[in-house]
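Hi all, a correction to my earlier message: I attached the wrong file for Ketoacyl-ACP synthase III. Here's the right sequence:
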Amino acid sequence: MAIKITGTGSYIPSSIERNSDFNRHEFLNTDGSSLMQNNEVIIEKFKAITGINERRYADKNLTTSDLAFFAAKDAIKDAQINQEELDYIIVGHNYGDVKHNTEQSDTVPSLGSRVKHLLGIKNPKCVAYDLLFGCPGWIEGVIQANAFIKAGIAKKCLVIGAEALSRVVDKHDRDSMIYSDGAGAVIVEETDGTGGIISHESATYALDEAHFIYFGETNNSAITDQRKYIKMYGRKIYEFALKNVPTAMKSCLDKSGYQITDLKKILIHQANEKMDEAIVQRFYKLYDMEMPDSIMPMTINNLGNSSVATIPTLLDLILKNELTGHTINEGDIIMFASVGAGMNINAIVYKF
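and the right structure:
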């Protein structure tokens, strides 16, 4: 028996927000004071660090559960399964459904139930629920699906990562330029043969790190509403990730029984180009090796950081030959890895 990804899907919004569009924003410090640099310099530095040229925003009439539904339909079709046979629908997200120009996040009913409703699934034994695990939520959902199947309580699971971060960004915070919207989904099921999910690793660092990413007030002190926005301590996250993610990846690989030279691709959460490169470089240095060329496909330059959606979207694009220069073939060993709010880290070694 093998537990494998048998279908993938994604939804990439059509609306493009380019770096130049942020020239009209008034960026402020956390205390509400003006930044010393003009927007052109701020944007240029942002591009150099993150690698982001543009990002995607969902249409105003859509919410996170809509994006998740679109990706789910795509994955179900790709896997060629009967959706009534799904045992679990697991939706990784962080902020629920936030309608355009509203202040409140809506999570009742759960996004899992909303996706099941939109799919029109009648089977009550198909259990739908949400998973809040920061940006690593999709990987954690796959790990949970794997556990359900191993335990004999499921055969087919739909795991989705979806987010509409454009609805929770503070336009007066330069970090708002990082975030984007999108969704990715996979079908995980028990199959004949070998391969699939080989090993996994998860961790939560919450003693000192729990609030590195949080919900906070706007940088503009003139705004008096009670709305909260996604906020982060970027330097602390960077240092945390470089210290802890490579060792988690090594632990996961060592448990798999494969060698680092066996890895064909590393699909890492698209958080920040420089940070991702530094993580993978440090991972290889743990084995006294240099990072190979083309090991780390990236989409952040034109899709931005869509949180839980980045890795399943990246996987879908590669498997459907829509990411130039990257392929995954039968027998390839790859690694998924992510870090995000919590602070949470996880990884999977997978054989196609």
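Sorry for the mix-up. The chain has a mean pLDDT of 94.
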